[in-house]
Design brief:
There is one protein chain. By secondary structure, the chain is mostly helical. Helices cover 88% and strands 0% of the residues. It contains 4 helices and no strands. Helix 2 runs antiparallel to helix 3 and helix 3 runs antiparallel to helix 4. The longest helix has 29 residues. It starts with a helix and ends with a helix. The mean pLDDT is 88.
């Protein structure tokens, strides 16, 4: 029974991560890598500051990863993923707009 489960799991993982690997999946993985990198950037910035901070690069990585994942979701026709990444992209862009506005006000 356990051997069957192991074999089934191994077959599933092989199909998902080896047989399904194509250029679209590679692009999707790139988007996910960018999206994940933002958390590393945020963590490192927070550790350096000794408090929780969100650097501007976090938002740029968020937009880059989100846009790539949105295009990936559109290609895969996944409505849940499309809605999630679409809304997220709008929020990330809005955050950059607010940061730019704050900087203009501060510099004036």
């Amino acid at each position: 029974m356990i051997a069957d489960l192991y074999h089934d799991l191994g077959g599933y993982l092989h199909r998902v991560f080896v047989l399904n690997l194509d250029i679209v999946v590679i692009v999707g993985l790139l988007g996910q890598l960018l999206f994940t990198a933002r958390f590393m950037v945020q963590w490192i910035a927070s550790e350096r500051a000794g408090r929780s901070v969100i650097p501007v690069s976090f938002w740029y990585l968020s937009i880059g990863g989100s846009l790539i994942l949105l295009f990936y979701a559109l290609y895969r026709a996944d409505p849940v993923f499309i809605l999630g990444q679409g809304l997220g992209t709008v929020i990330y862009i809005r955050n950059l707009m607010l940061i730019a506005k704050e900087r203009r006000t501060r510099d004036a």
